[in-house]
Amino acid sequence: MTAVFEHRRLVAFSETDSAGIVHFAQLFRYMEDAEHAFFRSLGLSVHTTGDDGSFRGFPRVHASADFLAPLRFEDEVLVRVFVSSLGRSSVRWRFEVLRCEGDLLCARGETVTVCTERATGGAAMKSVPLPDRLASAVAEHAASEARP
Amino acid sequence: MTAVFEHRRLVAFSETDSAGIVHFAQLFRYMEDAEHAFFRSLGLSVHTTGDDGSFRGFPRVHASADFLAPLRFEDEVLVRVFVSSLGRSSVRWRFEVLRCEGDLLCARGETVTVCTERATGGAAMKSVPLPDRLASAVAEHAASEARP
Amino acid sequence: MTAVFEHRRLVAFSETDSAGIVHFAQLFRYMEDAEHAFFRSLGLSVHTTGDDGSFRGFPRVHASADFLAPLRFEDEVLVRVFVSSLGRSSVRWRFEVLRCEGDLLCARGETVTVCTERATGGAAMKSVPLPDRLASAVAEHAASEARP
Amino acid sequence: MTAVFEHRRLVAFSETDSAGIVHFAQLFRYMEDAEHAFFRSLGLSVHTTGDDGSFRGFPRVHASADFLAPLRFEDEVLVRVFVSSLGRSSVRWRFEVLRCEGDLLCARGETVTVCTERATGGAAMKSVPLPDRLASAVAEHAASEARP
């Protein structure tokens, strides 16, 4: 399976810790940033506010990762984004975080995000259907994968 | 001059960087957290939302610091908060960040915050007078300082 | 089962994001900080450097969490630490992150850490047995749980 | 005066706070990252470890900023890097942080960094002369500025 999206970045100094490596919690930000970049590539944003003050977001209800090898300051990083499954309002993402040098797999991760809306003046968030553009992009990618 | 407030904390691992010390940008968070703790000690919050959706905050318009000595993982830290001057809507703060062990001064800082409000449904922030409770606490402290 | 350790903290402003809640990656720092505080309560540190330049740490090889409810600025937070299992060099931790107000469970998490050493001048980390003090503290807690 | 270097980035979601804008301490990371990118453009790194275990870094002894306008999630950001003055071992940097849309100046900053070395096995850092490559790049840029 090929990634539905790929995102590159460089390890910043402030992302490292006293052990000389990227702090594990930072890896979750790498995955989140890649997911957001995928949205932008579709002309979408994960965080939008309507003119009427309504708000749509994609909060995470689950995140997990296995850490296989360390990343260090100024390493070039590639984050591969996969969509494991789509529900009515939720997406199950899978990620691979690689050090570009040596094509070294450093972390594997998974998150579940839920498309959520808050009406104007309201406090409660409720789940809403995924944007059509996201569902169709994932379907197109799956179809291209299936071709011989 | 004695501090108007003191705030203690412990250096967390994720606050350190590859040089084995607390990252300099984190020191600004230490100062901000101490300022916020001072507000709480007065029964105030730096970030409040009214029932009508209005919002009051204290954004920083200036921040500076001199870094004198490093802090490391698990160091106990004391942040001393001073008020240099009060305007109608702004506060000029001064901070000293010390390592408790050896009473070592590690950083001196200064910030300027402005009391700001956004009306319901509005986008623009405008400066508003400081809360009375803050002004009176600072005046009380100054008076106690002046006593022989 | 009762927690082997409990750790309290307050949500800092810089830990929140544009959605008005604590950013999910920050929750992993809350769990890590609680684990480190447990180590300190035993007179241990997760990150020690020997006089000979050797280094012992507890890197994470796995981390996961389910996010159930949001935390906001100035919420008081309780992190409950559990030990699911101890290997020769690894610990499987379980965490509950609660908002103190209303005793609301906001996140459940799990991490696996491995006790690791790097010899003087060496680059490679190798796993080493857990500190006795940790194993005995966990055994004592389990025994106290088993008592009628 | 033109910038000696320019660095572009996009505001990540995790860099924003509950006020809906990039947290002020994050702006200092933007400036630091731009400085590091300038070093890389010269074939240098701000953080290097010798084969003999010696270490050279550029810790900050001063940082300040004025915050003029907010940055928000997914804003494109341009950081302009200027060198105000070069000492034997220190650099005084100046920065402008702009929102690309509207070419809006959002922050002005200044930092002072000191080239520092720690010998193998030593604990103390001492200041050492700046790398020739840095001094010559700054001189070349100044000369090109001076040309009519």
User: How many strand units of chain A?
Assistant: 9
Computed Rg of chain A? 17 Å
Low-confidence stretches of chain A: none
CA-based shape of chain A: globular
Largest sheet report of chain A: 5 strands, antiparallel
Proportion of residues in helical segments of chain A: 10-25%
Can you characterise this structure?
- Four copies of one chain form a homotetramer.
- A five-stranded antiparallel β-sheet of chain A has the order 1-5-6-7-4, covered by helices on one side. In chain A, strands 2-3-8-9 form a four-stranded antiparallel β-sheet, with no helix packed on it.
- Helices cover 22% and strands 39% of the residues of chain A.
- By secondary structure, chain A is an alpha+beta fold.
- The mean pLDDT of chain A is 93.
- At the A-C interface, helix 1 and strand 4 of A face helix 1 and strand 4 of C.
- Strand 4 of chain A pairs antiparallel with strand 4 of chain C.
What would the keywords be for this entry?
five-stranded antiparallel sheet; alpha+beta; 148 residues; homotetramer; four-stranded antiparallel sheet
In short:
By secondary structure, the first copy, chain A, is of the alpha+beta class. Chain A has helices at 24-41, 132-146; strands at residues 5-10, 47-49, 55-57, 60-67, 76-86, 90-99, 104-114, 116-118, 126-127.
Task: Describe the protein's topology.
Four copies of one chain form a homotetramer.
Chain A: E1 5-10, H1 24-41, E2 47-49, E3 55-57, E4 60-67, E5 76-86, E6 90-99, E7 104-114, E8 116-118, E9 126-127, H2 132-146
Antiparallel strand pairs in A: 1-5, 2-3, 3-8, 4-7, 5-6, 6-7, 8-9
